[in-house]
Amino acid sequence: MRNGKLGGMAQTTETPARTPGTPPPGLRTPRVHRAWFVAAVTFVTIIGAAAFASLPGLLIEPLHQEFRWSRGTIGFAVSVNLALYGLTAPFAAALMDRFGIRRVVAAALTVIALGSLLTVWMTAAWQLVLYWGVLVGLGSGSMALAFAATVTNRWFVARRGLVTGILTAAGASGQLVFLPLLSWLAEDHGWRPASVTVALSALAVVPFVWLLLRDHPADVRLTPYGGEYVPKPAPARGAARRAVTVLLKAARTGPFWLLAGSFAICGASTNGLVRTHFAPAAHDHGMPLTAAAGLLAVIGVFDVVGTIASGWFTDRFSARRLLAVYYALRGVSLLFLPMLLAPAVHPPMIFFIVFYGLDWVATVPPTIALCREQYGDDSAIVFGWVLASHQVGAAVVAFGGGVARDVFGTYDPVWYASGALCAAAALMALVIRRPRTDAPVPAGA
């Protein structure tokens, strides 16, 4: 290696080449590995960004009442947000390789805050689409699960499934923290203070990202947790080209389409349907908006438990079978939901909330594990594209659910259709084949 640099200390003489995994001079072995601190900062960052995701379902009724916009129109703005959230994710993963995690995430949080704040002064539906749909969608896409996948891939070799589950649960934790507050603000003080709260929450996380997050273990002369030393790769140029190239390569394989298709159904049955339309659907049956938001917050509580448990399961059991079980159980629960909606919260509804919450994003750790198994070093970008399909599915149902409510006067047809789609997703997960390779299959695949 010639004239290299390591940890800010220049090597000005010829040094013998190191084989991969050989520790460099000055390698540190801390008692508590720095990877856990990076994971903690990532967790807090995703919690802060999750505040904006809690708001759309709470805004449908207030915006409909104030501006007389149809639910389909408001649902369209939410669908643009969800679609851009997904379509930005693979490019964000590549941008993180090019510019570093800190810069991309700090910029994304700033864009989220800007878009949310601008909605306070909107007077037309196109402004809702621009501010909430485009700006917040682009910012949130850069803060998507591809961020968690990138951090996990760089900083962890052991416990990847568990860490993936913890970081995925961060979004649910943000929902838990902010939903009751936002619903109270929206109902008692109007939707504008709720939107300002989202903006301030996103901005508050930026200093933590800039000061505490690090892009790669080699930046602080460490090995990844549970692995051998890996030199920090040179910044990857042509981020957009790489994202498209990886997509074209992955699109030639069957597992990509099965993962993308099943994850599209996952998005349709969670973010698109329940997160966006559960509160207004419950309100249609006489339930107060604050009570419906409280139920969504409880989903967030059990989502944390279910997702972390799913990460633990993914380290030990077949990811394919786990996905099939998760989708099948979710489909059954959605088929029963129309019979449970009522003016008051009763025990069967609580059972649904707990059951559904445990399954909300439990699909993420095994999906990331399958991407890693199938696509190796490109897995974070491939997962970004799979996540794009998740959000496209969510966008279709966010818009379609609003239209269905306008046309039929009820959300029931959407609940039933989503339940049937979940059964199809379970079958798709089961037929994903292992890659043809002589290399050992990772644990939990």
What key attributes describe this structure?
single chain; 445 residues; mainly alpha; Growth Hormone, Chain: A; two-stranded antiparallel ribbon; 2 strands; globular; MFS; Proton-linked_MCT; membrane; MFS_trans_sf
Question: What does the model show?
Answer:
- With 445 residues, the protein is an all-alpha fold.
- It has one domain (32-224, 235-430): Growth Hormone, Chain: A, CATH 1.20.1250.
- 72% of the residues lie in helices and 1% in strands.
- The protein has 17 helices and two strands.
- α3 packs across α9 (239-250) and α10 runs antiparallel to α17 (412-430).
- The longest helix is centred in the C-terminal third of the chain and has 30 residues, at 379-408.
Please report the number of helical segments.
Answer: 17
Question: What is the string of helix and strand elements?
Answer: EEHHHHHHHHHHHHHHHHH
CATH architecture: Up-down Bundle
CATH topology: Growth Hormone, Chain: A
Low-pLDDT stretches:
1-20, 438-445
Strand fraction: under 5%
The Rg value, from CA coordinates, equals: 22 Å
Q: Briefly, what CATH class?
A: Mainly Alpha
Could you tell me the mean pLDDT?
81
CATH superfamily: MFS general substrate transporter like domains
